[in-house]
Amino acid sequence: MSFHYLSDLDQFVLSVREKESGRLIAEAIVAYHGGALRAAIMSTWISVAYDIIAKARELASQGERAPQKFIRELDEAIAKKDRKKMQLIENSLLTTAKDGFQFFAPHECDDLERLKHDRDLCAHPAFVSESELFHPTPELVRTHIVHAIQHLLCQAPLQGKSVIQRFDTDILSASFPRVPAEIETVLRQRYLGRAKESLVIGLIKGLISCPLGHEHAKYAGHERQIAQSLAAIGRIRPDVFDGEARHFIRKKAQEASDERILAFIRMAAADPRIWDWINESDKIRIRRMLEQATSEQVRDFDLSDSLDIPNLKNDFLLKFESMEQEVRQAIIAEQPRAEFSDCAIELYSRSHSFRNAEILGESIILPLARYFTSSQLEKILSAVEENSQIHLAAGSPHILEKLYGMTIGLLPQTAGFWEKFILSVERGRDPSDQYAYPNIRSKLSSDGYMSQ
Fold this sequence. Notes:
The chain is mainly alpha-helical. It has helices spanning 8-12, 19-33, 37-61, 65-79, 83-91, 93-100, 106-123, 138-153, 160-171, 180-191, 197-209, 223-236, 238-255, 264-270, 273-277, 280-292, 295-300, 310-321, 325-334, 341-349, 354-365, 374-386, 388-391, 396-406, 415-426, 438-446. Helix 7 packs across helix 8 (138-153) and helix 12 crosses helix 13.
């Protein structure tokens, strides 16, 4: 009898993590290539059983409770030569690895259960009639070998629950990043590099649930990191995310209370697909709650993220325009965005005291500097020139010097605006007077736009 063999098995075995597991599965591959198909199946099961126990021992040494209990029972049975107990342990080995250690997803466990079933047929031929003797095909044997390596042997011994608990601790720590690119790097390298599908699903569901459940207060101040982590998983594992997140988002939105449903705005801003996955009836609820949101809710739920969702952008802008000046000022200071530029300039131009001008300049003008257009910069300079509470504030020269440096990319379009401003504030003053803004004249001169 001749068989058609695929040479990639010999390469695939190199991905096996544990040395002894690799030796055992290599024996199965040698038997497969030699046509000893029953022997190949039995060797494959031996490698699976050994690897589960080896991973359990590794986790037990790290202090994991479930593996410690399992290893104690196994070692006790071995020491007492309790064959009945050892057989029971082997018979339930896959279930223990799936439910107790979270080594497999359910469908992966099903694949390995089929391997165990076929191993039993190979190991106990006397238990069936001659006409029912098991004759495995090369294709079946190769599938068993691939599943053993893919589902178990090449995987690190990560317990789904313990990894999720570790991530929960990390995201609440001061060291967890806030920049989306850095969050993605941490998730990719520390959690999802070789994570099994079951772990990815667990992380997705956990991230969606934590801002919505009764423990949401625990995550106060970390909600944006949670939303960005969810979006990062969508980029790292789109194969899992598109299916699992879609259905879970829809389900959780339906279940969410009116008080918590606004939490979906952060998620949808981080990943636009999420808004599309929410049922229309729940979108209506979100719009209604956005319309009714208090100033505290606007800040607590980061509702300015609505600006990143086309269907909610106008709703939020209408809400924003209706808010008290102090609230708008606080929102701009906390979340500077290009959409707030005109409002910030208006608030700044109406500064009613020296101190107010300094506070607004530092808190809402400088943070928005990277978004200003040349025409907006012209309005700011006109406001400083025309409002003496800004012009004569002790901190204004320093604020405008910083603004000049932060908007230098707008030169030469804005050079004329700066020159006009300097000539205006110098009028009737010694050019060295701080309220003549001499340092800005000096900068314009060194940049070749105005004489010293």
